Every structure is written in C-alpha cells, then in structure tokens.
C-alpha cells in the first residue's frame, strides 16, 4: 500500500511561523503514499519555520501563493499548526476564503494543533466534532464546534489532532482518509 495516494494532489496551506514538524512529517507521509504535495502560502519564496513556536527551524519553500491556487486542483488540504502560522492565515481574507471554499467541496481537510483556528475563522466548524491544542479549544467551542480531547478526531471530511506528540496517529489517519476519496480528474 505504498502508493495509495498516487494520482492525488494535496495542498498544505501554511504561513511564516509554521511548526516545522507539523508540516514535514505529514508531508513525508503523503509523499511516501505517492501523493503530489504543494505548499501554498500568503507569499512566494520561503516560509520561516519554528520548533515549539519559539526556536528557529529553518525555511520551507513555497510552491504557490494561495491567491494563485485553485481549490479544484487539489484532492485534500492540510493545515499545520504553530501559533503564528494560523494566526496569520486567519487574518488573510484570501487564505480564509480558500479554506471555506475547500471545505465546501466536501474533500478531506486535516488540521493539527493550532491549525483549526483557520477553520474557525472560515466559519466551517459549527456543529462539527474536532480536537486541537488545548489553548484554542475555547475559541473552537465559541465557533460552534464540539471539542474533544482525542489523539485523532475524524468527523466526516475533517481530520484533526492535538499536537506534535500525536503525529504518528495523525499521519496514518490522513493517508487513510485522503486515500478514501477518488482523485480529482
């Protein structure tokens, strides 16, 4: 089953301050399963990454500016965390609209740690069940979500996880969930 995502293209939407491990490990799992992966961001060039939000962790190359991306080109969406990353995304109307439109397609969306902040800003979690980093759970409840404390939570198209400690289970879940949806033609 090393190529269960062959023919699928996954967008990773991230901004400066992304938690490096929350982008790199899922991206590696997706590549390992045969997916094509593109990093979308608010600007071209590269993103500066962090480790535990405070320590510099190098840069990550941006493949495309989110404003130049089309939801129809992707089979799934990944929203990694880090505190600064989703805080920037949720204040950018283009990024928020991309997430809202993507959720509207019914295609799978995975998010970890602070990543669900962008889902809350896009107003797509009302009545949905999800998990996240503990400090944003009140924000998610206030946006209408049922928040649980689980390693991985799957509610229809949404796959969420709490923290970098949950990455092994999260990576396995996203590969399985993304593989369950037919590839975009």
TrEMBL record:
Pfam families in the cross-refs: DJ-1_PfpI
Location of the DJ-1/PfpI domain: 9-177
UniProt KW Oxidoreductase keyword: no
PROSITE patterns named in the record: PEPTIDASE_C56_PFPI
Domain of life: Bacteria
Keywords attached to this entry: Glutamine amidotransferase
NCBIfam families: PfpI
Cited PANTHER family: DJ-1 PROTEIN, PROTEINASE
Family: Belongs to the peptidase C56 family.
Protein name listed in UniProt: Type 1 glutamine amidotransferase domain-containing protein
Organism per entry: Pseudonocardia tropica
């Amino acid at each position: 089953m090393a190529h269960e995502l062959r023919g699928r293209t996954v967008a990773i939407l991230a901004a400066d301050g992304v938690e490096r491990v929350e982008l790199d490990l899922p991206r590696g799992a997706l590549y390992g399963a045969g997916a094509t992966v593109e990093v979308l961001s608010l600007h071209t060039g590269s993103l500066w990454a962090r480790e535990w939000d405070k320590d510099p962790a190098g840069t990550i190359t941006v493949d495309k500016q989110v404003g130049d991306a089309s939801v129809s080109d992707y089979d799934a969406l990944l929203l990694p965390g880090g505190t600064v990353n989703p805080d920037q995304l949720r204040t950018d109307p283009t990024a928020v609209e991309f997430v809202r439109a993507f959720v509207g397609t019914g295609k799978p969306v995975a998010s970890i740690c602070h990543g669900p902040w962008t889902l809350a800003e896009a107003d797509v979690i009302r009545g949905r069940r999800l998990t996240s980093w503990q400090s944003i759970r009140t924000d998610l409840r206030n946006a209408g979500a049922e928040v649980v404390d689980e390693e991985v939570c799957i509610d229809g198209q949404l796959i969420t996880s709490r923290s970098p400690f949950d990455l092994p289970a999260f990576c396995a879940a996203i590969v399985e969930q993304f593989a369950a949806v037919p590839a975009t033609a």
